[in-house]
Amino acid sequence: MAIYLTKESKVLVQGMTGGEGMKHTRRMLAAGTNVVGGVNPRKAGRTVDFDERAVPVFGTVGEGIAQTGADVSVVFVPPAFAKAAVIEAADAGIGLAVVITEGIPVHDSVALTTYAQDQGTRVIGPNCPGLITPGQSNAGIIPADITKPGRIGLVSKSGTLTYQLMYELRDIGFSTCVGIGGDPVIGTTHIDCLAAFQDDPDTELIVLIGEIGGDAEERAAAYIRDHVTKPVVGYIAGFTAPEGKTMGHAGAIVSGSSGTATAKKQALEAAGVRVGSTPTETARLVLARLEEQR
């Protein structure tokens, strides 16, 4: 089992013929992802060869869905065109849009996430590494060779911390790892993933990675307290960040005591979540918690 992405998922890549799109499409294919096409109106009708596999290019997402049955789109288009790309995918009826693009204006992010939600399209991101169900499918830029299938579900704001925890816990493995992105406005939240992992019978434990800024982790803590029965282990990045400074992601700004790592840690611990002070300690807490479950 998995959440959002399985071996049955059929993936279109919007922006596949660009530099980043080409590079990561090749990596997704190598990971076993069923990439069924790319989208570029200027190159429609062509095919692109990826290590002896020819992938067709369609003029629109709608054409790609009609000819392949695609249900996932990975968006590798420049920031100025990201809103239009997601709206096009949502209008075509895509079920999941994974928006890798960084630097999308906030008002565009508000528009594209709201529109997609109204159309029934789930957005992962923007400014995210995507998601991976190890051994089945990889939609985005997450390295596929640093872990294996297993029983841990991972949801994270940070791409690099996603990779680190995947590697630290590689001997246990993961059901699905979701990088939700660290922008102020995102389509899928910690809470969405917590609910999905709670309902996934093959996810035994959930790892939640947050960071300073905003109140997403505090809201996730309240949700865990009221709705999640599976064990949750957390890590919050930014304990040494100075107040009033934007650190890393656009959403990571601390004002007074609001949004601090300490406040988030306290909220999670009050909900029964064990929170590590480093990624390595977090991995140790996961192993200890799994041992207690046996």
Q: Give helix % range.
A: 25-40%
Strand content: 15-25%
The side-by-side strand order for the widest beta sheet comes to 3-4-2-1-5-6-7
pLDDT averaged over residues: 94
Shape: globular
| Overall radius of gyration | 19 Å
What is the oligomer described by this structure? single chain
SS-based class: alpha/beta
By CATH, the topology of the largest domain is Rossmann fold
> What is the CA–CA distance across the termini?
21 Å
- The CATH fourth-level homologous superfamily of the largest domain: Succinyl-CoA synthetase domains
Mind telling me the CATH class of the largest domain? Alpha Beta
Total strands: the figure is 14
Number of domains: 2
Level-2 CATH architecture of the largest domain = 3-Layer(aba) Sandwich
**pLDDT below 50 for ≥5 consecutive residues: which ranges?**
none
SSE ordering: EHEEEHEHEHEEEEHEHEHEHEH
Looking at this protein, list some descriptive labels:
294 residues, alpha/beta, Rossmann fold, 7-stranded mixed sheet, 9 helices, 14 strands, globular
Describe the structure.
By secondary structure, the protein is α/β, with parallel strands linked by helices. The protein folds into 2 domains: 10-124, NAD(P)-binding Rossmann-like Domain (Rossmann fold, 3-Layer(aba) Sandwich), CATH 3.40.50.720; 146-293, Rossmann fold (3-Layer(aba) Sandwich). Helix content is 36%, strand content 24%. The chain is built from 9 helices and 14 strands. The strands form 2 sheets. The protein has a 7-stranded mixed beta sheet with strand order 3-4-2-1-5-6-7, with helices on both faces. α6 packs parallel to α7 (216-227) and α7 (216-227) runs parallel beside α8. The longest helix has 15 residues, at 279-293. It starts with 9 loop residues before the first strand and ends with a helix. 52% of the residues are buried.
